[in-house]
Amino acid sequence: MALALVLAAVSPEIGGVLVRGEKGTAKTTMVRGLASLLPAVRVVDGCRFSCDPADPDPACPDGPHAADTAVVTRPARLVELPVGASEDRVIGSLDLQQALGAGQIAYQPGLLAEAHRGILYVDEVNLLHDHLVDLLLDAVAMGRSTVEREGVSVAHASRVVLVGTMNPEEGELRPQLLDRFGLTVEVAAPRDPQLRAQVIRRRMAYERDAVGFAAGYRSAERELAERIRAARARVGAVRLADAQLVTIARVCAGFEVDGMRADIVTARAAVAHAAWHGRDAVVKADLRAAARLALPHRRRRNPFDAPGLDEELLDRLLDAEPDPEGPSTGSGPEDDGGPAGEQGGPRPSTSSGHEESSGHEERSAAGQEGACPEPVDGREESEPPSPSTGSGQEGRQTIARAGQTYRTRRFVVAGIGAGEAGRRSRAVTDAGRTIGVSPIGTYGRGLHLPGTIRAAAPHQRARGRTGGGLVLRTGDLRRPVTEGRESNLVLFAVDASGSMAARRRMEAVKTAVLSLLLDAYQRRDKVGLVTFRGDSATLALPPTSSVDAAARRLDALPAGGRTPLAEGLLCAAETLRIERVKDPRRRPLLVLVTDGRATYGPDAVHRSRLAADELRRTGIGAVVIDCETGRLRLGLARLLSVRLGADHVEVDDVAAGTILDVVRRERAA
Ligand SMILES: [Zn+2]
Which residues have a beta carbon within 5 Å of ligand 1, which is an ion? Predict the structure, then answer.
């Protein structure tokens, strides 16, 4: 992480750093630490866009600046972008009322202007609206930010070191956005006790005497800052040989990355890495370090694949041809760590770090369970058990693994919602087909100009208009009402009882649910998982945007025991009730995976009917995936779907299928 931040500081054109990792790993502390290492900047006094007096932005909205303008020197800024920030706050706002009425452009700069020549830090970048992430990444790539409102535009320089941090357990970035971050790093807390002890020691020393603690690092910090400054001065002159471009291309092709962005970023990062090490030409160690940071998130992959890079493959690809700069300096990854690496101390290898970190995520997420009663062996379920432990303790319990996923039918919530943009159910959203206009109190994105003029036109005489300009009031402004698609909460309630445990059947069920999870990922849904078997139901995964966490839980789910259907339905109802309080705009879709049997406790069938009636009263959209197989069928799941007012789908019909299949299904229904 330190190396990635330093390279981005040396060369912001690399395009930002994305830091992924669990909570409590000092991600934010590290980013804030970087700010004090950046060289101070000289700026034109009074310019809100931080123009460099030596090279002012010719298009500066506060310009042009005179050659003898007053100059101030200030530290480089660290600007933190809050997750709830509006577009206006990020790129600045144009006062349209003034532009349309008085013909003057009044521009209020945003965070991108404030962060120019400094760092822009977005914590929880995965929770930021896609549209804003796009804007940020565009500005970083171009080094300029442009605001455009109905044909009026203002642009200013915005050369920022963009750093985003995220906890993947709380939801992934879309792959399209992931690819646009220059570098990514995975962070995990160290597992080495010595290293952990050192963290505690330093933290306690800091708490005892913060000033003295900082003073102890002052000279090391000054050295680092000087090294960054020197690397910045050097980076423009670093040579990258043609043969090395070919090597970069071979490495990128070897890892099957999409597009060309990986190649370009790797080249830039290698140059920055050479400058950081005081070299005038790129060597193999620079290429290797750059590839390790630029490629892992760009491999063609499925959201459930493990992160990281195959280091052996990387070395084979790098070594395919001799290095034109002679033998490498021998600096391996241990030597490239920048500030952290130089402090010494062992670091966990990338691969073991990942394995351990995913194990830890499992545990921490399991700690959030609790809305529904946990079974006695709940703790064991939350770990990915090996087949032997799964079947060793309880003879009747088996774990079937899912097969190859497939494209599924799209299940939707009926009616028109108003949830977050996504790709599932119909909804009034920020973008999409315009279906009307509505008044707005404040101007913002998506002004509907014809609607606004129509609203203002009848009042022109009364408002005393004499000249050519339109007399506009805030109340005239109209914004388009558009219909697109929303994302939903897809809550899976999966029967894992003995009647489902036949290996082939559980395989088919897991494959279907995994396919639906993949579909939910692509449609940007939140997902949750309730399982029921034995004597109780468990909220195995509280609603989250982390589809891969759901996939891991599902894959490790054992099956066996009686069928507490009523408990499963009530647990689902309770989970949905809580979620409605937390996130009222998001409409839920319940996917109930069952053969319809209820065999646990007294009056099992009667109680499950009552539970179904209660779920139906909440008005929730539901689909019953019918898992009953065999020659003699009871049709219980179909009866349950009628009771719930839910769609009924056979497990073998979850796949999208061909047009003919769809027609056949419609006819049968
Ligand atoms: Zn300026």
Answer: 47, 49, 51, 60, 62-63
